[in-house]
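Progress note, project year one: complex with flavin-adenine dinucleotide.
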Amino acid sequence: MAGPFRAEIAGGGICGLATAAALARAGWRVRVHERQSALRTIGAGLYIWENGLRVLEVLGCYDAVIRDGHRGSVFEIRDCDGGIVDPGHLPPSMRVYTVPREWVLGGLRGAAVAAGAEIEVSSQAVGASEEGRLDLADGRRLEADLVIGAEGVRSRVRDSLGLLRVDDTTAEGSIRLIVPIRDDDFSDADRGKYIEQWAGHRRLLITPINRRETYLAFSALDSDPGCRLPLDRDDWKAAFPMWSHLIDRVTDDMGHWDVYSIIKLKAWSVGHVAVIGDAAHAQPPNLGQGAGMAMQNALALAHLLDGIRDRSEIPARLRAWEASERPIVEHCQKYSALYGEVIHMPEMLRRRAFAAGMNDPWLSAQFFKPALHHPTGCP
Ligand SMILES: Cc1cc2nc3c(=O)[nH]c(=O)nc-3n(C[C@H](O)[C@H](O)[C@H](O)COP(=O)(O)OP(=O)(O)OC[C@H]3O[C@@H](n4cnc5c(N)ncnc54)[C@H](O)[C@@H]3O)c2cc1C
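Model obtained:
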């Protein structure tokens, strides 16, 4: 590379940090701007599938992220009585780990800093210009070869350039939190399984994330009183009595409620500005791939910019990046949204839909396609 070229990145979440690590490792001078006073994430878990794990390996932070996280082999879907609707045996060739989100953020931060990236906190982006200028709330105007908008669903960089095409939310959302676990919390048959249990229009996702903690996601339609914080333990225990012992461990200060966003852009870049992560392609979490797609796109971006001799080559490389990566991201968005539709079904129909859908090799291949995708830039 003829550089070093300079990148200014708005947003210090999973995507901004992964992009910083990938570009800095490729020889770019990189600075991340995070509007919060510290790099911070909510107390929840994160699924990282084969595609995302490969990216972490390339970025050099696999061990820092995974630590003693949980490797899953079964994602079981159950009905309201606890009956197994789909046993969810995952293909052994496809790894999935679940870990606390803060490990992901910490591991990516470490990789970015080790590669030479700077991180500025309390630094809020307010816009950008396509020539490659990032505008900050404190009045600074920073010139760069590449500006990245990675500030999540409400990206100011994206909106200042008029790139938004779809900004939607689903009718479903969830309260996410982490509780401590004890040895006798799970029967031998259940220990280590991911369990998604349905009750009417609610579902409870139980996700081991290490030997000490389990991540719980209480999902419901946003019209459901069960969405309110603090979590109404009695109400949720009535829906899922077999998990009362875990629900009882939720305290009033725990939990974060989110509805699910769907974001699509007219284009992922304009001139010297690229938009990435939830800012460009937020999706419902049903395939557990929003962060996976963000990290794989970050690596692809650095890979497809490799070898440029002059900053004038950047806009065409960004268009090539979008052409290469957008199809798998849109596939993932589509099937993640499709999975979410089952919440509207009556219990009996949902049971049949799962039984038929999960046993259909073509349909299950569509659901696993993102996880089995070989990320651009991975050996
Ligand atoms: C319920 C739920 C469960 C999920 N589970 C999974 C899962 O298991 N696996 C998975 O892969 N994905 C999952 N996802 C998706 C995943 O959380 C997101 O795709 C991922 O966090 C996106 O990262 P990001 O960095 O693009 O955005 P964000 O995580 O939103 O980070 C954006 C960062 O930018 C900062 N920021 C915002 N505005 C500005 C500004 N103007 N200037 C500077 N900084 C700014 C924010 O403070 C934040 O730090 C889930 C999502 C939901 C809602």
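The chain has a mean pLDDT of 96.
DSSP finds twelve helices and 19 strands in the chain.
No further modelling is planned for this target in the current period.
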